[in-house]
Each structure stands twice: as C-alpha cells, then as structure tokens.
Design brief:
Largest sheet: 4 strands, antiparallel
Number of domains: 1
Helix content: 10-25%
Radius of gyration: 16 Å
Shape: elongated
Strand order of the largest sheet: 1-2-3-4
Strand content: 35-45%
Order of helices and strands: HEEEEH
Length: about 90
C-alpha cells in the first residue's frame, strides 16, 4: 500500500493519549538559500504542515545559527507562507 493512501491524522486522532492534542501532518519539507538582511548567505529549512481542518502552518529554521521563524495557522499554504516572520531569521545569532 502506498503511504499516501494512509490517513495518518485519522489514525492518530483515535489514540486516547492524543485526544486533546493538535495533530499536524508534515506535508512538505524544502531547503531555501537566501541572502540575509546583512547580505550574508543563509540556508533555511522549511517545514510545511497541515491539520485535519485543512489549516497550514510553516516553520523556517536556520539550523546553523539556531534561529526559527514560525507563522500562524492559515486556511491555505500561500497565506501560511506569507505569515512567516522572515525577519526573525536575520537576527544576530
């Protein structure tokens, strides 16, 4: 059975220990290379997750500098990406 056919969120929602948990499926992972505000190069790991209600959330991380910028849950991926406070990845480490 292909893994795409398994409704992981539906299974997890039935676990008694997770009844009050927010459960998000990591739908996409990407890597971006960008220039920070100071002009230095930066590698950013992006994680895009979706919940059972169809809300999306995006987390961007600069692992090297231990910086994270997380957006808020939005009904679409486009909106969620735009809600990431990208400036937080420009902070001094």
């Amino acid at each position: 059975m292909p893994t795409d056919d398994i409704d992981v969120l539906e299974i997890l929602e039935k676990i008694p220990q997770l009844l009050d948990a927010q459960i998000w499926r990591i739908a996409h992972r990407c890597r971006a290379y960008r220039a920070r505000a100071d002009g230095e190069d930066q590698t950013v790991e992006l994680e895009m997750s979706v919940d059972t209600a169809g809300r999306w959330i995006v987390v961007a991380r600069d692992e090297e500098r231990n910086l994270t910028a997380q957006g808020v849950a939005m009904p679409g991926l486009n909106g969620a990406i735009h809600m990431v406070p990208w400036y937080m990845l420009d902070d001094e480490a």
